[in-house]
Amino acid sequence: MDKNRPKPNTDATLQTAADWWTRLRDPRRSARDEEQWLEWSGGDADRIDAFARVSELGAQLGALDDAAKLALVREFAPAPSRATRVRVFAIAASLLIAIAAGGAVLWQRHRTPAVEVENYATAVAVDRSITLSDGSQVALGGATRLATHFAGDRRDVALNAGEAYFQVAHDASRPFVVNAGEVSIRAVGTAFDVRRTGDRVTIAVAEGRVRIASSEGLANGRLSAAEALEAVAGQQISFDPRASGLTVGAISPGRAASWREHRLEFVNEPLDAVVADINRYSTRPLALADAKLGTLVFTGTVDTAALDSWIEALPKILPLRVDADGDHVTLSAADRETR
Q: Which CATH class is domain 115-253?
């Protein structure tokens, strides 16, 4: 288990990650706690990695008996430094306390009701694949934040930002529901992609069938009961709060998650949403000099491995001027002489 052993210079980060791990599992936690956790993790790869390792340790500790827990803690702690060993023991102790408290997460599956909560995040331009406790497979795109809340009778997932491709393990007794902003996607034994850019949500179905409705109980006026719909493989559904209702289009099932092959595909999408999605993969963030430019419509494929080439070619597609300044790129309205 050498991969779980922290480097000496990550002790403080691990301790903070352990504190967040326990806070997020407190049944009295507030929405502000989750917002603060997102602010802390941000796009910091070291913090995200520390939180992932603490979560892994917590999961393993909760599933073991007392003797095995002690052995695992000893193995997790690095041998050379006694001070480091003490700190890691403290981290493990805090996780054990959280597990013993029962709170929001009960890793002992024989208890009822059992609730499991996990938080996942990726840095800019970093993809990641995970396996959920029910066996479902999830591929996370760059700069993506996702949280799961599994109970005995349902499986809830919140896509807070970014993009994820779900291959759902079949379990008819526990609906699998993904909430992305104002949109709720319910699936059983299927594969689909969800992209969230602010309040704009796009769903592409690769296999099976999903039901799409408002995650606010159809009570906020955005989606009516009549607009809740079922989508099948080969369909793409988009929701934009600036437009009315849902729009349905066709897509090749094999292209539902083309981003996994480094291709971002857009069809008649507003430029501000396109820029936001590209920024999840760009080490040089793009910005619009004027918010009005965000209403320009773009259709095309962007290779995330060749973003500079796409940026250079953009003025040939849209009436824009590209200004690169160090680590940032600004898109402005093209001068009349260049149009």
A: mainly beta
